[in-house]
Amino acid sequence: MENPARITIVVCDDEASTRQLACAALAGGNYSIIEAVDGNEAVELARSVRPDLMVIDMMMPGRNGLDVVAELRTDPEFADMPAILLTAHDAISHRDAAADAGADRFMTKPFSPLKLASVVDGLIRKRLATQNKRLRELDRLKDEFIALVSHELRTPLTSIGGYLELILEEEVGELTTQQRRFIEVIERNAQRLLRLVGDLLLVAQIEASGLGLERSVVDLAKLAAEAVETARPRADKKGIDLSLVCEEEPALACDPARLAQALDNLISNAVKFTPEGGHVEVRVSCRQGRAAIEIEDTGIGISPVERDAIFAPFFRASNAVEREIQGTGLGLVITKAIVLAHRGEIHVESEEGIGTTVRVELPLEHKDGNGASPAAGGAA
Amino acid sequence: MTPSAGRVRPLVLVADDDEDILDLVVFRLEQANYDVASATNGAEALTLARERIPDLAILDVMMPKLDGYEVTRQIRANDETRDMPVILLTARVQEADVTRGFEAGADDYIKKPFSPQELRARVQSILGRR
Ligand SMILES: Nc1ncnc2c1ncn2[C@@H]1O[C@H](COP(=O)(O)OP(=O)(O)O)[C@@H](O)[C@H]1O
Ligand SMILES: [Mg+2]
Question: Residue B38 falls within a domain, yes or no?
Answer without folding.
Answer: yes
